[in-house]
Known about the structure:
Elements: E1 3-10, H1 12-18, H2 22-35, E2 39-47, H3 59-69, E3 75-78, H4 81-84, H5 88-100, E4 104-107, H6 117-150, E5 165-169, E6 175-179, H7 184-192
Parallel strand pairs: 1-2, 1-3, 3-4
Antiparallel strand pairs: 5-6
Amino acid sequence: MLRVACYERVSTEEQALHGASVEAQTEALNAYCTQHSLKVVDHYTDAGISGGKPAFKRPAMSRLLEDVKAGKIDMVIFTKLDRWFRNVPEYFKVQEILDAHQVGWKTIHEDFDTTTPNGRMTITIFLALAQNEREKGSYRVKAVLRHKFSKGEACFGGRAIPLGYIKQRDENGVMRLVKDPETRDAVQAFWDY
Length: 193
């Protein structure tokens, strides 16, 4: 029976925006393993971790690679390629470790083939596109925050308001965060400190 490692990863914003929750990935991987009579060695879950982060700075990925080196795993499975990596150089570092220990990988919702030159090229192209999308998203968020900062607008998302502040419209009707008059002295003391 093939021994598999199930890898799940989601960054916080992806979980909220795209429904790629850890729970959904785990359910899909468990169902796949049952359907194909695969033995699950363990689930390796990096929740709230970017796909661009280096492999050895992801706790679950690091543990997975140590288990690969220890000979505990025959194959790694994950739902989609972008759950595995969104960084081409990091992918190749990990692939080198997997190759050295004759460990394959498979996506359960996509069809990739690492055994042919065309298959490897396709993977590289898909990873490059995922890396590009990650970098563009990061650039867009930074641009929005820079714009808000330059206009003196709040750079906080959602409904959360930092302690000591209140929302208030300025003379142009723009919603801004201002120091709460009731806690103004304490907030100023904090910033002074």
